[in-house]
């Protein structure tokens, strides 16, 4: 009787092996599900990026506003008869201070 129980326990373990560690086992399925979820997340990011790039391309093709904006901010271009005024903040003013001309000192008599 004891030999039959031991043999059945071994058969049960042999049957469980493919279920857990085999080609279509639960561990492998869980790994594939994680890979699929990662791929879906990456695809969603790429779809959002493509939509943004598509709208930017459409704007550059159809309108002049986007081209003008890029020329102003990236190339510092201005229109003819236009005055450029730059407002410098506190942090930028300290960085530009060494570049500013120093006031002339008054001569002592």
TrEMBL record:
It is a single-pass type II membrane protein. Residues 29-56 form a coiled coil. It is found in: Cell inner membrane. Keywords: Cell cycle, Cell division, Cell inner membrane, Cell membrane, Coiled coil, Membrane, Transmembrane, Transmembrane helix. GO terms for biological process: FtsZ-dependent cytokinesis. It comes from the Bacteria. Pfam families: DivIC (PF04977). InterPro entries: Cell_div_FtsB (IPR023081), FtsL/DivIC (IPR007060). Residues 22-109 are periplasmic. Transmembrane segments: none annotated. Residues 1-3 are cytoplasmic. Its main location: membrane. GO terms for cellular component: cell division site; cell septum; plasma membrane. The keyword Membrane applies. Belongs to the FtsB family. Part of a complex composed of FtsB, FtsL and FtsQ. Essential cell division protein. May link together the upstream cell division proteins, which are predominantly cytoplasmic, with the downstream cell division proteins, which are predominantly periplasmic. PANTHER family: CELL DIVISION PROTEIN FTSB. This is Cell division protein FtsB. It comes from Duganella sacchari. The gene is ftsB.
